[in-house]
Specification:
2 domains, FAD/NAD(P)-binding domain, alpha/beta, five-stranded parallel β-sheet, Rossmann fold, 259 residues
Length: 259
């Protein structure tokens, strides 16, 4: 059995299948296991996620999963290895809004900012007011950045549990994070963003970093390359449809018990 991707879904399906006496080879393109959980655990208020990463890694070790780090599995690898089952847990790719200037140098994804160490910028606009955008806003504000969150919907924090949202919003208010709802990103320049809200004319917000946090899209590239090979293939986690780590781990455990 071959598992492509060492995030929470890939790790879970790998060790549960290995526990059930499958020979499992897991390939992860990064130099460490954990996937987006590693990135998600960077903000100090989410540090506890690392205990979940440690648990998943330890279970893979105990049950004899063969982990190949720093190796992005390819269609050629799969053809050469001829596994009886391939489980794709390749995750997702950042969704980018189709606006002028999206390829400007000051634009970054939320992952790039979180993994880039201490912020070397002071004025940030975060596009997207979901849980990821708000948590990133708190992370940057704690580093001394002046942060503005731009959200198209009439409210931010959709998907957050009520008490968590209340606490997070209080922390953002205390750090003077500006939150603009019902506001559309119109364009990005080398010095900031053009926005327009339903209540006022368009205006320009200066920034030296624009961070995109509007969600993700499934990474189906490997599936499209191997779907014709006649091998049993399963897709789990964000590569099938973006979802929470909890849901991804659950469906991975269920799949492993069916194989």
């Amino acid at each position: 059995m071959l598992v492509a991707g060492g995030g929470p879904a890939g790790l879970e399906v790998a060790w549960v299948a290995a526990q059930r006496k499958h020979e499992v080879h897991l390939f992860e393109k990064r130099s460490e296991l954990g996937g987006r959980l590693v990135t998600g655990s960077i903000p100090r208020h989410k540090f506890e996620l690392r205990s979940l990463i440690r648990f998943e890694k330890r279970q893979a070790e105990i049950h004899g999963v063969h982990c190949h780090l720093g190796h992005e599995v390819t269609a050629a690898d799969i053809q050469a290895l001829q596994p009886d089952v391939v489980v794709l847990a390749t995750g997702s790719l950042p969704a980018l809004p189709p606006v002028p200037g999206i390829d400007t140098d000051i634009v970054a994804t939320f992952e790039e900012v979180l993994t880039g160490g201490k912020a070397a910028f002071r004025h940030a606009v975060i596009v997207g007011g979901g849980p990821t955008g708000l948590e990133l806003a708190l992370h940057l504000a704690d580093q001394g950045c002046e942060v503005t969150v731009v959200e198209l919907l009439p409210a931010v924090g959709s998907g957050l549990e009520a008490i968590s949202r209340k606490v997070l919003m209080g922390l953002l208010e205390a750090r003077h994070v500006t939150i603009l709802t019902a506001t559309e990103l119109k364009a990005i320049t080398s010095t900031g963003v053009m926005i327009r809200s339903t209540e006022r004319e368009g205006r320009f917000i200066p920034a030296d970093k624009v961070v995109i946090a509007v969600g993700t899209r499934p990474d189906k590239r490997l599936y499209e390359q191997i779907q014709h090979l006649g091998i049993e293939i399963h897709q789990i986690g964000d590569c099938f449809e973006p979802r929470s780590a909890k849901v991804a781990i659950y469906e991975a455990a269920v799949l492993a018990r069916k194989l």
